[in-house]
Specification:
The complex is a heterodimer.
Chain A: H1 6-33, H2 36-57, H3 64-99, H4 102-132
Helix pairs in contact in A: 1-2, 3-4
Chain B: H1 3-48, H2 53-62, H3 68-81, H4 87-93, H5 111-121, H6 129-132
The chains are: A mainly alpha, B mainly alpha.
Chain lengths: 137, 133
Amino acid sequence: MTLHSAGVVVNLRRAKILVTSFVCATVAVGATSGNMYLALAGIVIGALFMALVRRRSGEVHTDERVDALGGRAARATFVIMSVFLGLLSLFFIFIGRNTGDGGIEALGTVFCYIVCLNCAVYSITFKYFDREHGGEY
Amino acid sequence: MTRQKARLKNLGFCVAGIGFLMLLFMFFVTASWIGCEVKDVCKEAMFKYEGDRVEALIKLLEDDAADFRARNSAVWALGQLGDARALPAVKKHFKGYEKGTRCDRGAKLCQYELYKAVKLLEGGPNISAFVWR
């Protein structure tokens, strides 16, 4: 039985719905009764169950189109967030220096570091996937 | 080298690189935060006392009428600034520190805080200072 057959897809979807309902219910019960461990256990069991179901099906769960779209969306998100945070950090540093508010300036500096970290992590993961797929850079 | 080994090596480099970057990021954020706190303490001291930031902090430390929390913060900020002019004033209040003793920052001058400040003012290493000084 493969994933491409409609029956398995439906079964997987059912399993997902069931696990989501179970996790939601456990978290809700845990939150209302103030028992954090119950909520945590529900999440862990749900994750383990889903991992088991996926492993048993033994097939690819996404097609190339979804992968390509995910990659493009991730890159667009990276560019948008980097530019946005970069501009925001400049704005905060400028305002902080003008008003003498050290807190706002520090926030701007932290945003600046986040942008740098973002770019560095992007470079490392890009290199990783490039090597993984046989590229020579 | 087999392909499996090469892949593992690649993954190791990636994880180690990202982990190192995360640590570096946390260090820079913490150092910036320290700098921001030092500047805040200096600003408050300079609002009340005359002189540059070190002089104002020394005056705050010497002021018996001032709140102990503010005076302890002044000691901390003086240590972080690392200006040797503050050493006599800080040493004057330092009576000795025993490891493990706890200190109520609102009730007295904290000997541990003074101990750290003396060490920094005598030229001890302050690895976060280059980020914000």
